[in-house]
Task: structure prediction
Amino acid sequence: MMNTQATKLVALYSRLSRDDELAGQSSSITNQMDMLEKYSKDNGYTNIKHFSDDGYSGTRFDDRPGFTEMMSEVDAGNISIILTKDITRIGRDYLRVGLYMESFRQKCVRLIGISDGTDTANSDDDLMPFRNIIAEMYARDTSRKIKSVLQAKGRDGKRLTTAAIYGYRKSPDNKNQWIIDDEAAANVRRIFSMAIDGKGPYQIARALTDEKVMRPSAYIALRDGHEVPMPDDRYNWNGATVRKILDKPEYMGHTVNFRTYKDSYKDHNNKQRPREEWVVFENTHEYIVAPETWETAQRLRVVRRRNNSTGEANPLTGLTYCADCGSRMHNHRGTWADQYDSRDNYACNAYAKYPPKCTMHYIKTSTLRTLALDAIRAVSSFVREDEDKFVRLVREAHDIQNAEAAKVQRKQLLKCQKRSVELDTLIKRLYEDKVSGELTPKRFEILSGGYEVEQAELEQSIAKLQTELDRYTQNGDKTDKFIALVRRYTEFPELTATILNEFIQKIVVFEADKSSGQREQQVDVYFNFVGKFEMPRQDIEAKPCDPTEKRRARQRTYYRKNREKILARETEKRAAAKRAAQLTSEEEPRCEKKSA
Result:
């Protein structure tokens, strides 16, 4: 038995966390190793082996490589004694440490902590559980202090990330400053360009993989002199990586703090915060992607596009809206029957539901493309001819639109604020009635709960309305950005997805009017940065009214009113039939009872 114990290893375990580094050089891994070796020599332990973890917290166990290796030797029965500076080197979670110490006892492994006098060979050490609890309390207190420091640092606008993201690198003169990495930044710009061109994350990832573009993790590791995966893995992009790149406001030159959080200092996996809880500091470093490009990419990402047989998606999808119900228009493509040509058109998405909640608003895709391209050409031409007049017209239109919208928003805001004050008064009265005994506690909880839910919803509405009003006040026109966009293009030979998405915000389609015998349909084009722009009409000589056109106008008015009357009668008939059916269903049981 003694010979077997003598052949087993004496494990010298050292651990240093980032928090322990603050204590100075005395807690370093090297000093711990020297202390353990000296103790081993003084006590005659010769068959020793070092296990160490540098930079690992005591609240973590499973991902410590040195500790994991040591426990594998323990499970294999190759270790008789574990030497450590103190018991906190094993860990700072008293429950987990207690379980490991019980495991050591069962495997006849002796645990010795030199500094705190721990030795499991002494069965009368009653203070050991309390030492473990104190160690965990120390870890909790340290975590709380570090969290407070990071909170203050993050709120002050200092970057909390330890490494620069793909596309940037740390400045050699200032480690807290990011500078552009030209090679990686070119790939980031291309990813955003492909997204604006209508490509999805997995399509972009597939293209980068096929072209042997090194993926971010491998590129950063190779750039900084670290080991990288095998050559086949270096170029294996995936859609999740592309999505993360497209999602980062940092590429606009912003610093983003508090993107993730942990519920407890014992948690090792970060959780994502809602985007509205992020703390963003703008223009802290040079941008790779212009803000308007980033915003356009975000707008296009929320739209799901179906590819046709050639693998291409219709770029108009997500930009076309119904003028009446406001829903997106649905793109229909394919072949109806042998006698019909292949179709490609848009119709209101609410019309496809059963029962239909809107009219069809049918329009051909080719017509939409032609109208969009003509609108872009016309407005761009007008901008090139007279920029000053364009700016003046856009500002006048914005002033009128913002004044009308702000008036509605202000009225709604006052209404919500008034109701919120009323709820405060009602809740106060309920509480007084409860105290006086006029209202039971259960009834108080029901009523006050309903009022509090309503008040919470009102607070959200008030905050949203106030944000909209502030936007009307603070955001001026962005005609300079639209003019800069026009200057980038010398001509528009065809409508590409990139041109469409850069110029157009949305296209609003009205229902066609066929009352005159001809199909007439209104389509409004809204441009990015400037919204709907009405081209000024040229002063032309007045022409006498065309009698035919006057007659057609009267016919259109007559047919429209007649159609509205027919629709109203049909609606009333359906409502009457529904009421009759309900009365019949209520009377049938009574008749059966009488006959019985």
About this structure: The chain has 18 helices and 18 strands. Residues 387-436 form the longest helix (50 residues). The longest strand covers residues 9-16.
